[in-house]
Amino acid sequence: MRKFALPALLAGLLSAGCDGLFTGENVARFPLSEAAGGGYAPLRLTLGPEMNPIALNLHAEYAASDAEAGKWNSYRATLSRGGSRIATGDFNVNNTSSPSSQSGQAVSRTMLVVEVGEVGDYEITIVPTAPIAVTLHKAQVELRRNIRREAPAK
Predict the structure, then answer these.
(1) Strand pairing partners for 76?
(2) Which of 3, 61, 78, 102 is most buried, taking the most CB atoms under 10 A from its CB?
């Protein structure tokens, strides 16, 4: 029985946070505009309770680069409405290429999973929490509705 514990634990860890990427319905992807300091310009989204739970995911690409291989960026995503913060989450984007990689890769991360109380315009901001170490290209926010929440840990 014990020899199966490690693979089960690893599978659980690898799938943690994936519900926001793979469940529910993909509503749309919105391109992000870079802002000074390595973050992105605020993005307005119209959200409503019929979409709950909602996942806001970051999708981007990075080039193979010996200088950036194995490094990561740390970000904070904040969802607000009318100047009031609704949710905040920290996430990392890792460059998993090796120094000998020949091609770039795509990366997807769930930034926030939220439930909103009313229909309206919301704003998401994404700012770095540490100096930028990985150059991202084609960054987008993906909006997914009616996702399945992870089962609570036992």
Answers:
(1) 90, 127
(2) 78
Q: Which residues contact 20 (CB under 8 A, 6 or more apart)?
A: 55, 56, 57, 110, 113, 144, 147
Beta bridge partners of 107: 60
Distance CA 27, CA 123 (A): 16
* Residue 104: per-residue pLDDT: 73
Which fold does the domain 19-145 belong to in CATH? Jelly Rolls (2.60.120)
Q: What is the pLDDT of residues 4-33, one digit of tens each?
A: 443 333 334 334 456 777 789 999 999 999
| Nearest Cα to Cα of residue 128 among 86, 79, 91 | 91
As a whole-number percent, the residues of the chain with pLDDT over 70 amount to 82
What residue spans define the domains of the chain?
19-145
